[in-house]
């Protein structure tokens, strides 16, 4: 059997799984951004017809999962596992949102890096022969995240320039062992480590997460023996304007210049005039950019290979209130166009 472990932190798949279906559900603010035309569905009601913000996020996840399965031409009964998570306490958006699908589920938490974590675990399950079809997904919602991590919306607090705006949206992919047309393949993954530079400013998530992003990107380059120039894009999840500069500087110090082909989903998802300070954040940020835009660029052949690096800040209301720092985590996933 071919060796799948690669370097210190990476896995190179023997039979790279296919992404055969994807769905992106977003809120109105995201739909008004520069990528609005790429998303599958824009929900103008932030409550999505539900009674609470949390129920709205649950509904987004269910919609995304069902749509991705439908677009893959599979049935829900064909899906062996769900791998899902979110930002809310005890993953309630995933557990309550997905229980009606009646599919075995792994609940995962990587803060805003959860799309990378769920995509990596789902791909390992398929490549390992434990499942033929897996759905990986996540979500976030501006109001539910603000309620849990920051201030009640009615408080009307001012937001510092380093703050980011939590994306309202859910993204889901169907990972399969079977090709179905012009698909994208998951070539390999580099699992990130928790990196803590001692930053305690929860309103500056970019600075908290950038060291972890730089660490896993550099490790992926080393493990796979590929430099920045071999990717059409290197895409982080939600570092925003502050974190973007930091990750570029750290990697330059390591001997890698990613500035020519680097983009950040948090910077891209909103227009400059949408009053989002440093950019977008949340699990849904990288998830909807992946399912709405990145996969389409790969499928159409505009890009052939990307390094997708969702990023997360590992704090909770308890840890923050107890004065702890905000460690970061990031996972790198190599996505390649499969010409069929």
Short summary:
The chain is an alpha/beta fold. Helix content is 33%, strand content 23%.
Written account of the structure:
There is one protein chain. Strand 1 and strand 2 (10-12) form a beta hairpin. Strands 1, 2, 3, 4, 5, 6, 7, 9, 10, 11, 12, 14 and 17 form a 13-stranded mixed sheet that branches. It contains ten helices and 17 strands. It has helices at 28-31, 53-71, 92-98, 114-127, 142-149, 205-224, 240-253, 265-268, 283-299, 317-321, and strands at residues 5-6, 10-12, 18-27, 41-43, 81-85, 105-107, 133-140, 165-166, 169-176, 184-190, 233-236, 262-264, 280-281, 305-309, 311-313, 328-330, 332-337. The model has no long low-confidence stretch (mean pLDDT 91). The protein folds into two domains: 5-176, Peroxisomal Thiolase, Chain A, domain 1 (3-Layer(aba) Sandwich); 184-337, Stage V sporulation protein AD (Peroxisomal Thiolase, Chain A, domain 1). With 340 residues, it is of the alpha/beta class. 55% of the residues are buried. It is globular. Helix content is 33%, strand content 23%.
Features:
single chain; 340 residues; alpha/beta; Peroxisomal Thiolase, Chain A, domain 1; 13-stranded mixed β-sheet; two-stranded parallel sheet; 10 helices; 17 strands
